[in-house]
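Subject: sequence -> structure tokens, single chain

Hey, anyone have a minute? Need the predicted structure for the following. Not urgent.
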Amino acid sequence: MISFKQLPVEAKAAVAAGVVFFSMMLSRSYLAEKLDFRTRRWLLRLQMALFANTLMLMGSLHVWRSTVTTFTRSSAASSFCFMLWKIAVFTFLALAHSSFFTLLFLVAEEPYFFSLAAYTCLGAYIILIFFLFTLGSVEQAYKFLAGRGAKAGSGNKNRTALKPVLAVLLTVALTVVGLLNASQPPAVNSVEIPVHKLPSTMNNLKVVLLSDIHLGPTVGKTKLAMIVRMVKALKPDITVIVGDLSDAQAKIIRPAVEPLGELDSPLGTYFVTGNHEYYTSDVSNWFELLKSFNIQPLHNENVKIVSPKSTSDWFCLAGVDDIEADVLRYSGHGMDLKKALRGCSSEHAIVLLAHQPIAAKRALQERPDINLILSGHTHGGQIFPLNAGAYLLNPFFVGLYQVGQNTFVYVSPGTMYFGIPMRLGSRAEITEIILRSP
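Reply:
Had a minute. Here:
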């Protein structure tokens, strides 16, 4: 039997990732009741950071071998420039690995430069891994098609050296494009949606949808203040925030949240939790903070939105907890559609706020009489090549979907971004939804 010491480094990293993952499951299942709330919160977040880093270690070893070890036998290996290159690659990998720990130690009113640099390197790391893998696959396919009988020569060596150079150049170019794209204000996307049984007195009611702002290591008060100014300029009747407002505890990031107090939609501002609210393990304090800004959390509950023109005309606006609360066994929380829609009959229009598209699908299976569901979560994939994974993992990806004759689902691509301050193949959005009466 092969001992642990004899395993290759990649295999050791995989074993370490498995151990961390097992410890996460163990602490959730058996230690949840034995540890105090604060300790459990820190343990979970530390475990998640360690798990991500052990997985990344396998990729980092591949990056180092492709971009450094490949050139150690070349004539330039002893040069000063190559030494600088090794330092640059090592620093790049170290920053990418440290990004997950900034959630624990570097969150404030405005982002720290270190956090922005670390998450930028993480985004570039994902892109670089993709291109190294893709170009490596193309190289192997070429060798297979060309035949194994060909002798290795300088041409093969040149192709081997070309692969990491091309991957690095593509990564740098896309990283710059992604940073520039994410630095732009969110696009305002206006969408008209017919809502079955919406009273005629509420025709053209304007709802502004925000999602996935992710206040934390790379999004701060300045960004949020810009979003609030844009929302106020739209003069919505209702503003809704469908989860993932923050990645930090309420007390730590409270100064960054203050611009939300300027939202003044006449029919109210409403909020439902996303999965990241539960990762903070601070949902109750977030609810209290939002209430102080006159923002009403919909914790598996609903409100009647009454027409300004007729008190007898109204529709039901409901919100459910994010489904991640069930996975995390977060006490007192979890998606409860029956409770959320209590008192909402099919005689009136029903609009549901549910952070994840998977939750939207479940809701429609249970209550097909829901007329409109507003979600987020997917970010439109946020950056290439994650777009494909987000598309495959969600029943609704981004934009407007019609389900049946009288039901629509709208999925926001996110108003900001999570961690990585980049957008590739997606655009941040503030959605202006115009409700049409049939």
